[in-house]
Write a structure and sequence with these properties.
- This protein has helices at about 1-20, 35-50, 85-90, 120-125, 135-140, 165-180, 200-210, 220-245, 260-265, 270-275, 290-305, 325-335, 350-355, 355-360, and strands spanning about 25-30, 55-60, 100-105, 105-110, 155-160, 185-190, 250-255, 280-285, 315-320, 345.
- The protein is of the alpha/beta class.
- The chain has one domain: Alpha-Beta Barrel (TIM Barrel).
- It has an eight-stranded parallel beta sheet.
- Strand 9 (about 315-320), helix 12 and strand 10 form a beta-alpha-beta unit.
- Helix 6 (about 165-180) runs parallel beside helix 8 (about 220-245), helix 11 (about 290-305) runs parallel beside helix 12 and helix 12 (about 325-335) packs parallel to helix 14 (about 355-360).
- The longest helix is centred in the middle third of the chain and has 27 residues, at about 220-245.
Length: about 375
């Protein structure tokens, strides 16, 4: 009888804990799974059955839209009469699952082939592209003459964060999304420079020289780096104001580099400031390290450099594409021991390709 009582007490406690678990269990869903209704239905069914309470749905991939927009050209993978984002929101009957519009902010193009949309920014706004100092391929618009054999350097083509016209355009994109759709969140990705060698957009350089030349009399590189960081931070600040004007209930989050120093110095992404200033509500460090010691080192840097009152605003990104389920699961366990209870899994794709992966990972979840 006593054993039966203990069993009932344990079950009730477990049920109570589950029902009152406020931790974030997020899932990144790439745009490939938003092109048709049955794919979106499968995403929602998977999230429902497996305890995910936030979905980061990629609706802006490479300068295109997986929704109906008056500003952004629609993806060639989506039928003209279908709005994937609207369908996702309307089909989500479980209101405990929050839908976030995941947008690649400055990342514009990665294929060696030209976009199929004639109104794509890559084809019409070459003066908006960022480049490295000696990159004549972009500066002289040579890529426009290479329709099917464009040279792809690194990740591809980026918009310039230092060009005011770029940021005004992106604010209009975010404004449209936050006005038109009943979103739970907007999730920024690639809200950074391509790498530390970039920042030589002509208009951006003019802005730097016009605004900063009077202020520095020492190391130009230091001031230039600060200018690049400020350009993105000002965008994040302005975007936050616009979103909150449209809806104060929208959660603003950003997928960020997990090494807090590399983020600032190499990608000009001062996400700790964005979080402490209230420009974003959640920071999602993409801690995709395979070696546990590298993974833990990133977490201790976050823990040591970010005041504890912001730790519950950290959602740690765990990768599945580069490690097995056991390694990913052990990282989740370690995070909980460090009191980081919010996680996001990258990505749903792995579970579709290999259903056994989730069966193994679920026990850690």
């Amino acid at each position: 009888m006593f054993l039966k009582f203990l069993l009932l007490l344990f079950l009730n406690h477990s049920l109570f804990s589950y029902e009152n678990d406020t931790s974030i269990k997020a899932l990144w869903v790439v745009r490939d799974y938003l092109t048709q209704k049955h794919l979106i239905n499968e995403v929602l069914d998977f999230a429902n059955r497996n305890g995910f309470n936030h979905i980061f749905a990629q609706v802006r991939g490479r300068g295109d839209a997986y929704y109906d927009s008056e500003i952004v050209p629609k993806s060639h993978l989506v039928e003209n009469d279908f709005d994937p984002l609207d369908y996702l929101i309307r089909s989500n009957s479980n209101k405990s699952i929050k839908i976030h519009a995941w947008i690649n902010v400055y990342y514009l193009w990665s294929s060696k082939h030209h976009p199929t949309q004639s109104d794509h920014l890559l084809l019409n706004n070459s003066h908006w592209l960022d480049r490295s100092e000696n990159d004549d391929y972009i500066k002289n618009q040579i890529y426009l003459r290479n329709k099917n054999q464009m040279k792809i350097v690194g990740e591809g083509f980026y918009l310039s964060p230092t060009n005011p016209m770029v940021n005004r355009y992106l604010i209009s994109v975010i404004d449209e999304l936050s006005r038109k759709y009943k979103l739970d969140g907007i999730h920024y990705d690639y809200i950074r420079f391509h790498n530390s060698n970039y920042g030589y957009n002509e208009i951006g350089l003019s802005e730097f020289n016009r605004n900063s030349v009077k202020d520095y009399n020492g190391d130009r590189d230091i001031f230039f780096s600060e200018f690049k960081r400020n350009s993105i931070t000002e965008f994040v600040k302005d975007a936050s104001k616009k979103i909150k004007l449209n809806s104060n209930e929208i959660i603003i989050s950003a997928a960020v580099k997990p090494n807090i120093y590399d983020a600032k110095l190499l990608f000009f992404q001062e996400w700790d400031l964005w979080l402490s200033a209230g420009y974003i509500d959640l920071a999602v460090p993409m801690n995709y390290m395979v070696k546990e010691e590298d993974f833990i080192q990133n977490m201790y840097m976050i823990k040591d450099n970010l005041p504890s009152r912001y730790h519950d605003k950290i959602v740690v990104g765990i990768s599945t594409y580069n490690q097995n389920a056991r390694l990913a699961g052990k990282k989740i366990q370690r995070l909980r021991r460090m009191n980081f209870n919010n996680i996001s899994i990258f990505s749903y794709t792995e579970f579709v390709k290999n259903p056994y992966y989730w069966k193994k990972l679920k026990k850690y979840f």
